[in-house]
Amino acid sequence: MWKTTSTGVSARIRGGCCRKIKNYYGMRLSTEAQAGPQPKASPPPPPKEDLPPPKKRGIFGKLLGLTFIGVGGTVGYAWYDPSFKKQIEDNVPYSKDAFDFLFPYLPESFAAVKSRVPSLPSVSQYNPFGSEVQNTKEEGRWKRRETSPDSEPESIPLALPETKPKVAETKKEKEVPIQPVKEETVEERRQRERLEAARKKKEREEEEAAENAALEVNLENLVLSCTNKSKQAIEVQNRVLESTKSHVQLLKKAMDDTTNILDKDAQWEAVATAFEARQDAVLAAHKDVTAAREVLEKLKHTIEEGKKNKVTSKNKMILPAKETLNNMSSELNKMQSQVEKTEGEAKVMLKYKDLIDKGRQQFKKELESIMPAVKLGDRKGMKLTEDELNSMIAHAHRRIEQLQKQLAEQIALEQQRVQRALEDQQKEDEKIEKQHLAQEAERLQNEFAIEKEKWEAAAQIQFEEDLRHHLARQAAAHSEHLQEVLRVREKELEIQFERVLHTKLLEERSSFHTEMVGWIARLKGIEAAVDGRAESEKMAQQAQTLWLACVALNGAIRLGNPEGAKMEEQLRPLSNEVEAISKASGNHPFVMNVIEKIPEQVLTKGVWTEDNLRARFPKVQKVCRRVSMVDETGGSLLRYFLSYLQSVFIFDSIYAKCKDTEVDVDDLNTFSILASAKFWLERGEFENAVRLMNQLQGAPRRVAADWIEEAKLYLEARQAAMALMAFASARGLGTIF
């Protein structure tokens, strides 16, 4: 199997890709043609009511049209913009092969199309500014080309009014006088740098002052808001405490007071009113406490942001704001703890009330089950009969006995319940204590952080004062050291100046001698150049002689002996031409190596010419086709006859029509090999033809062996002649350069 290059692979991929695209769109078009009637066909039958309208054809046509528009637009823009083309090739598979297949049918580039568009008349012909505007435009265009050589081509101006602003700008630029550039001295540059540094420092200080002022204003507003919100939340929580305590006291009084039964309704109404007041206070407290917590969180976030910023981290308002935040948070936490404690007591009282109400309801149900006719709580039927009173007394006695038994059991279990209650209370107390400890620890930690910041600020001030004194002492010592160094440096520079002056004098004295030596060297160089020129002329003459000898060898290989009548008589030995080349090259190693590789038969006998080999090939092809079925060992007359019949009925089939086409040797037969060899011979490709003929086997191989051998000799001689021609040309170019 022959191995092809990367171009053959790309061509094969391109062909496969194009075939897939054509098959895909061919399938789509055939489907569309089958979906509905053709326009030029006979008129369709009248539509039936039960059939739906053919909407799919319109949708398919739109999709097909959008597909062609998208593909065409992509190809067009890729032709216009090479960068877009490169991006598509990098991201879309097989797009490079598709572009390589389509772009040969398009112009080379957008610039080539632009070069064929006739240019419009110059703007200078229609404006009073003459050629100056045109020169200015040309200079600007050349400058743009120099600065951006890879930029896109300029657009062609299509209207004259677009150039008028450019003309006006050119006139203004022309009217501006060119100021002479004044060289800046070292002192001026230093002064400018000092002023620039002072200006930047002042701007930086102003920016820092503005940031600090903004932070101070923000902190003042937040501190004031936190104070107001916290006081309001504490006041509302105090009202919650008072209302909760009042509600608990009234509830306890209403449940425990049994002396004045007629005033119970008023007592319970007071309890309900106190409960409503308590609920209102709780809602208001929740709202105000939430608002206060939000403001405190904003203040905390602002303080943290100020400390993170390098400019505002040392602001004097951060520490007081942090103290205020700590105090307000502590007060709110304390008040919240008191409210939670009071709420817990209220919940216990409510549970006690629920238990009492359940006991009364149970006793009422028991009496109603004993005396269904008597309605408890009805004041109109208060008189009871003797049997009802006896039943009630008996039930009361039984209830008392039952309660006495329950009391005995409760007394026995009271110790356990008290123990469990104490454990629950202890757990609740521990929970509250942990909460208090966490709040107190947070408060102490915040206070410690504030004190630490105060200590850091005081230490920073003390450190800065000590640093200023130390720097002042260091500056004085450094000034004295600089003065001493400058005195030493002055003496060194004086000594160095004297040494340099003496050196310059010596250099000036020797300059004349150096110039004389230079002129003498130039004269010697001229003599050497003349000698080299003569040598190069000699080498050029030798190169011409060698090239002519190589041309003679090439002509002998190509034409042979034109005077011969037969093909065998046209053979011409090449020994004379080869000997002439060897003498002309001066026995150069490369030439001698190439000559040694030429076969001896070529030198003594010669080679068949290309025309003779091409004329001889049809006869060889004909005989090889007739014996295609015969192997190396020969065969019977029947095999020869069948082989002859096969050659009559089999037509030529060519597998390889391109140099880069990859062909599997196992798929080749005698007829395809002969047809392909003939195809390449007609196109002057002897190498491919000989390579194909070399694949023959059996009797066709024996028949074509002589032709193959002569063709190989011809190719070897031609290859040697081409190598010698290339060497002669290179040597001639070497003499020129």
From TrEMBL:
Its annotated compartments are: Mitochondrion inner membrane
Q: Which residues cross the membrane?
A: 63-80
Q: What InterPro entries does the record point to?
A: MIC60
Q: Which residues form a coiled coil?
A: 289-345, 386-454
Recite the UniProt keywords alphabetically.
Coiled coil, Membrane, Mitochondrion, Mitochondrion inner membrane, Transmembrane, Transmembrane helix
Q: Among the entry's GO cellular component annotations, what is one? A: mitochondrial inner membrane
Ranges of Basic and acidic residues composition bias in the record = 135-148, 163-190
Biased segments, Polar residues type: 124-134
Its biological purpose is as follows: Component of the MICOS complex, a large protein complex of the mitochondrial inner membrane that plays crucial roles in the maintenance of crista junctions, inner membrane architecture, and formation of contact sites to the outer membrane.
PANTHER family tied to this protein: MICOS COMPLEX SUBUNIT MIC60, MITOFILIN
Family according to the record: Belongs to the MICOS complex subunit Mic60 family.
Q: Which organism is it from?
A: Sinanodonta woodiana
Region span, Disordered? 33-56, 124-190
Q: How does it sit in the membrane?
A: Single-pass membrane protein
Q: What do we know about how this protein assembles, alone or with others? A: Component of the mitochondrial contact site and cristae organizing system (MICOS) complex.
The protein, known as: MICOS complex subunit MIC60
